[in-house]
Amino acid sequence: MGAVHRVTLIPGDGIGPEVSLAARRVVDASGAQIDWHVEEAGEAQMAREGTPLPERTIESVARDRVALKGPITTPVGSGFRSVNVALRKKFDLYANVRPVRTFPGVQSRYEGVDLVVVRENTEDLYAGIEHMIGDYAAESIKLITRRGSERIARYAFDYALRNGRHKVTAIHKANIMKCTDGLFLDTVRAVAEEYPQIEFTDEIVDAACMHVVQRPEAYDVLVLPNLYGDIMSDLCAGLVGGIGLAPSANIGADCAIFEAVHGSAPKHAGKNDANPTALILSAAMMLRHLGETEAAGRIEGAVLALLRGGVKVTYDLGGGLGTSEFADAVIVEMAG
User: Fold this and answer.
1) Which fold would CATH assign to domain 109-239?
2) Whether residue 206 lies in the annotated active site
3) Which of 14, 242, 278, 320 could make an S-S bridge to 260, C-beta 3.0–4.6 Å?
4) 81-91: per-residue pLDDT in tens?
5) 316 an active-site residue?
6) Is there a contact between 240 and 136 (Cβ–Cβ < 8 Å)?
7) Which of these is catalytic: 13, 173, 228, 312?
8) Taking the alpha carbons of 302, 303, 304, 308 in that order, is the dihedral positive or negative?
9) CATH, range 1-99+243-336
10) In the prediction, which pLDDT does 80 show?
11) Residue range 241-252: average pLDDT?
12) What is the secondary structure of 286-327 as a DSSP string?
């Protein structure tokens, strides 16, 4: 029997508890030994305790240093800003890693897409430095630091080396935002000089969005500031079937939280019809982070086999399985 890994599981709200349970069951059947610590966050916690992110949840993540998190509703325009952002800032999870690939059997306009979005996760406009100017204007401050830019650039190049990638492209708007995006671009260029074995290019964000849609096969690893990274990762997910298939990792020096890219879809809560693929694949990323590469490979192989078959999948992919039934099918596929 291998090592037992302590992991905090945050089910979330909306469809979160359902897809989280599906992912947990798949992980438990993969052969990895996980000691789960279930802690809550989200709207229900806000109603019960006046905070969406209880201190005991933060303490559990701090102890375990690894968490799997279901989607959590972020209110639009009012209320708490975001549990997701709060966790990233609390644990300095500076790198948001979102792999995007074509899945056999999933309807898409593209073939052969295989790229990774590496998004700076702690600053830019998402730092939340904003205020009203009287009653008629609002101001948000775009914060870009040399330290933040350097460490996300270094993460992107190190990721490329570790994973057999050959090219890193920095995405920016330095032609207009010459101070902030200019600092980001200059810093990434300086880091690129330390990695001569990795091809480096840069593109302006609006042109990059067009080019990624026209020829996604030309890209490998993309490194971006926070806001552009958020937008680009969803755009890239749209190339391969949508965010229901998009896993992600939030990585810091001492902690990592894994989550699906999609939101909490409260209209589907309790209906057992949500696609848990993204969180299951996020759990596989978590297992790789923990060194459980064989278990991760079993999960990924089973999911790919089901998607390729196109029958034992959820309704959004043309099948008839519910959330729990899809988890059952993944477990059976792993056992076969």
Assistant:
1) Isopropylmalate Dehydrogenase (3.40.718)
2) yes
3) 278
4) 678 888 998 99
5) no
6) no
7) 173
8) positive
9) 3.40.718.10
10) 59
11) 91
12) HHHHTT-HHHHHHHHHHHHHHHHHSSSSBGGGT--B-HHHHH
Distance in Å from the first CA to the final CA of the chain: 21
What is the model's pLDDT at position 42? Answer: 86
Catalytic residue among 28, 178, 186, 206: 206
**CATH 3.40.718.10 segments of the chain:** 1-99+243-336, 109-239
What integer is the mean pLDDT of 173-180?
97
- 186 classed as catalytic: no
- pLDDT tens readout for residues 251-292: 999 999 999 988 898 899 899 999 999 999 999 999 999 999
**From CA 330, how far away is CA 304, in angstroms rounded?**
9
Position 283: which residue type? A
Residue 276 per-residue DSSP state: -
User: How many residues does this entry show for the chain?
Assistant: 336
User: For residue 93, is pLDDT > 70?
Assistant: yes
Nearest Cα neighbor of 286 from 22, 11, 82, 23 is: 23
Give counts: helices (H), strands (E), the chain.
11, 12
Could you confirm whether 28 is annotated as catalytic?
A: no
Give CA–CA dist 184/169, Å, rounded: 13
Residues 6+ positions from 292 with CB-CB distance below 8 Å: 2, 5, 30, 31, 32
| pLDDT tens-place string over residues 138-163 | 999 999 999 999 999 999 999 999 99
Closest C-alpha to 171, from 158, 193, 159, 156: 156
